[in-house]
Amino acid sequence: MYAGINEMRRYLMRALTCKIGGIVTNRDISMLQSISLQRILIVRPNSRLGNQLMLTPLLQEIEAHFPTCKVDIFVRGNLAPILFKNYPNLDRIIKLPGRPFKCLFSYLSTWISLREYKYDMVINVEIGSSSGRLATKLAKSNIKFYSYNIPELLALNQDYVHMAKCIVYNFRDYLTKSGYLSDKQFVPELSLRLDSSEMTNGASVLRKITESEKPTICIYTFATGTKCYSKDWWKEVYQKLNETYGESYNIVEVLPKENISQIDFTSRTYYSLDLREMGAVIANSSIFITADCGIMHLASSVGVPTIGMFSITNSLRYAPYNKGSIAVETSKTSAEELISLVDRHLKCNLA
Q: Checking DSSP bridges between strand 287-291 and strand 306-310, what pairing results, if any?
């Protein structure tokens, strides 16, 4: 039932917003030159873990250029207060309910609340989001930055297509044209910004699981829909990992909220619904191996070398890109080749 209602909602949103949007104009550039940015609204009405974590490079970029600027974000669901806990420039989190038509009054009142503040700038993050374009249209601001593809930037930056990076490159281009020159060469990595106490607790939790001082390889065998690899595939990979590294490394499976395992709980396991603790546990491992999913982006956001496996989604758009991480197209990579990649990355990270 809810699937049908949501599909109707998406159809109506696309119809309402198909003509909303536009490129940055000379008027926008001159207006930015004449004001001091004190409050920005970031629009990304999506509830997925990975999509919200991919806002963190933009948050860091704004913080670097405008350290006193307050940022509000318009999102969906309840993850944002957890994920952005340690971003001091973040002020208001405007949250759409996860199931709009189950909480219709809350859904409508949240849209209305977009009109409560006047913003110096509104940034719509995702070009394909109808809700994002509508929210940007409704928000009070003289400068509205709709997402769009800039061919010149694509020609200059081969990673421009990445979901987390595209909006940062666009934002920098706008700032440069307005006289704010950026000396940053690389787009910031995703960052959960774990504090020292969280890292210490993560190390303690991992030690209790492994009962060992050996370094740990973490695996995550779940993913949604067709992104999830079969039990036979994962069991072959786990067997080869155990044969290769069982003596010198602990192998721990991080379990999803569904508490299921594609290797039938053969390995030591870690289960938690606390995303920050989960991130801290993963951060204390040596490498993280997973299919493309939200937890892959969580691992990347805590700085652990992450091997993200892609079978149907676009690795150029979603790949983990923190130091030591790599996207693997499994249609072109055997289990043996995957183990060789793990070995290469472990040796590189130890060097």
A: parallel
**pTM recorded for the entire structure:** 0.91
Phi, psi of 306 (to 5 degrees): -125, 130
User: What Rg, from alpha-carbon coordinates, does the chain have?
Assistant: 21
Q: Are 119 and 41 in contact (CB under 8 A)?
A: yes
Give per-residue pLDDT as tens, 289-317: 999 999 999 999 999 999 999 999 999 99
Exposure class string for 217-252: b at 16+ Cβ within 10 A, else e:
bbbbbbbeeebbbeeebbebbbeebbebbeeebbbb
Same fold, 2-177 and 196-350: yes
Using alpha carbons, list the distances in angstroms from residue 260 to 74, 254, 279, 290, 306: 32, 10, 19, 14, 21
Distances 338 to 3, 266, 288, 332 between C-alpha atoms, Å? 37, 20, 13, 10
Number of Cβ atoms within 10 Å of the Cβ of 274? 12
In tens, the pLDDT along 63-75 reads: 999 999 999 999 9
d(CA 36, CA 314): 38
pLDDT category at 21 given cuts 50, 70, 90 is low
Which residue type is seen at 171?
A: F
Segments making up each domain of the chain, as ranges: 2-177, 196-350
The fold adopted by the segment(s) 196-350 is: Rossmann fold (3.40.50)
Count CB atoms within 10 A of the CB of residue 264.
12
Identify the CATH assignment for 2-177 out of 3.30.70.3270, 3.40.50.2000, 2.70.50.50, 3.90.70.10: 3.40.50.2000
> Any bridge partners for residue 73, and if so which?
42, 93
